[in-house]
Write a structure and sequence with these properties.
single chain, 510 residues, six-stranded mixed beta sheet, 17 strands, 33% helix
Length: 510
């Protein structure tokens, strides 16, 4: 196909602003470089291998934003995240810009292609080598090795790195290109590479180009891709000010079988990729996978309890004032899991229940601290302080397992503690069914503030079905994917929908 994409390919759904006063001299140089040396390295919808690579208008605008400079000539954005669905030219664009960074970067520069596996890292690196091999001028300028490209005249080098290769400390990176960030098993490699730019100041940048993936990594916490995505949305929305961070993310969460949805999510739709491929894929691909790879959405797993996008659809502007009647749901542990406190307003006619995660205590699984324990005193003080700030807390509904002493302390202070055993299957079946129905009814029944940790714990929950009915559980006893905040939320909402009809009788724990 030869048609150029229409103007709706830009801007993406989420894009952080570039500050006023930015200059684009280096960006224009990068565009000219690709216009001169760009080459298609393998047969695709966009052309035959060996033919000239033509930048699309949206790609040029992306490069301008990405390479925006401050008054000193340094990069404004030292860290960048670019999100594109599959088959929108991610690898080709990254490989050409990585070569540009190596040639036009500082003397003694170090450029790296980084991925979860060495084979994945070599995809971008391999395209870079084929680009150089296609032009005599570039061949004369470089020395090509199996896993490195050297610029002898500048003392600069471009290398491949992968998470599976182990530690990458001691580098002095000037440009880092991370391919498929979503596949990183944890955030260690990202953090090490980010620190490796420290000595370069604003003359270095780290760019991750990825498709959406799982929300949680191997540790059970938010994946680095999902974490940066959520942060970028906050910067894009003006909730956080950070000129040093750039994100451009294409996605659409409309009906997954509609061509209009595909077009909105894919800037190269009908140009760099073929609509007929989408038509075939949507018939044979599970919806969750299709939304992730073709629509670039972070979705829950196929085993998840809540349907894709249902919890996100309940997000809104949520503030719980001191004048509102509140239920606190509490699910706690000492070590293996985590402890969570969730607030829910009392259900009233024609008003949705408002939900907020008050606080979560969760072990940092990126460390080897085997002696980690929840700070019990801090948990107790947090509950006390919340009740002081919100004098109309009607109940503190608590699973008492291992927390009897704390609940007795709170009760002796006059706080309205009640026992709510979340391990009771019969109780949780009804509470889960009620919560599910409210979520499916949308913001008319329940509304939350979009807290990503609460969303992650709900997404981690899977369904257990037995003769009593369905209820949420962890995917396995040993799974690092926690659901404690989800349990606390369900407890709070369950009590918030019945507390008006029951007399609150504090229960003492002995």
């Amino acid at each position: 196909m030869t048609s150029m994409p229409d103007v709706e390919s830009w801007p993406p759904r989420w894009m952080t602003p570039v500050p006023e006063g930015a200059t684009f001299k280096k960006a224009e140089l990068a565009i000219d470089f690709i216009d001169t040396f760009g080459v298609i390295t393998k047969d695709s919808v966009s052309g035959r291998a060996g033919s000239k690579l033509v930048l699309r208008d949206w790609q040029k605008e992306l490069i301008r934003q990405l390479y925006a400079q401050d008054e000193s000539g340094g990069f404004i954005a030292k860290t960048a995240l670019i999100g594109l669905p599959r088959k929108n030219g991610k690898s080709a664009l990254a490989s050409h810009l990585a070569v540009f960074d190596t040639i036009f970067g500082p003397a003694g520069g170090e450029t790296y292609s980084v991925a979860a596996t060495r084979d994945q890292a070599r995809i971008v690196f391999g395209e870079a080598k084929r680009m150089i091999e296609a032009h005599e001028e570039l061949r004369d300028l470089t020395k090509l090795y199996r896993d490195a490209i050297e610029i002898p005249a500048k003392g600069s080098v471009y290398r491949v790195l992968s998470a599976e290769a182990g530690a990458a400390e001691g580098l002095n990176s000037s440009a880092i290109w991370v391919d498929e960030l979503h596949a990183q098993p944890n955030r260690k490699m990202f953090d090490v590479m980010s620190l490796s730019m420290a000595a370069r100041g604003n003359r270095a940048h780290m760019v991750s180009i990825t498709t959406a993936g799982v929300k949680s990594d191997s540790t059970g916490r938010d994946s680095i891709a999902f974490d940066l995505y959520n942060y970028g949305k906050k910067v894009s929305a003006g909730e956080v000010s950070d000129d040093n961070y750039f994100m451009a993310w294409w996605e659409d969460d409309g009906p997954h079988s509609e061509p209009e949805t595909w077009r909105k999510a894919n800037p190269g739709f009908g140009d760099l990729n073929d609509p007929s491929d989408f038509e075939a894929a949507v018939r044979r691909t599970p919806e969750a996978e299709f939304r992730t790879k073709r629509m670039n959405c972070f979705v829950s797993s196929a085993l998840s309890w809540l349907p894709t996008g249902s919890w996100e659809a309940c997000e809104g502007d949520v503030t719980i004032s001191p004048d509102e009647e509140v239920i606190l749901g509490f699910d706690g542990s000492f070590s293996g899991d985590c402890t969570a406190l969730v607030a829910s307003t009392i259900q009233k006619d024609d008003e949705p229940v408002k939900v907020q995660l008050v606080k979560i205590w969760e072990k940092n699984l990126d460390t080897d601290d085997e002696d980690w324990r929840v700070d019990i005193a801090e948990v107790e003080q947090t509950i006390i302080q919340y009740c002081q700030d919100h004098p109309k807390v009607l109940e503190i509904a608590c699973d008492p397992f291992r927390w009897q002493r704390s609940m007795q302390v709170l009760a002796e202070l006059g706080l309205p503690v009640i026992e709510y055993p979340s391990t009771s299957p019969r109780r949780m079946v009804g509470a889960c069914a009620k919560f599910y129905d409210m979520v499916m009814e949308g913001t008319g029944s329940i509304i939350h503030d979009g807290n990503p940790t609460l969303g992650r714990h709900l997404a981690n929950a899977v369904v257990k079905q037995d003769n009593l009915g369905p209820r949420i559980v962890k995917e396995s006893r040993s799974s690092p994917r926690k659901i404690d905040a989800a349990v606390a939320c369900i407890i709070a909402v369950d009590r918030a929908t019945v507390a008006r009809m029951e007399q609150v009788v504090p229960q003492f724990f002995g």
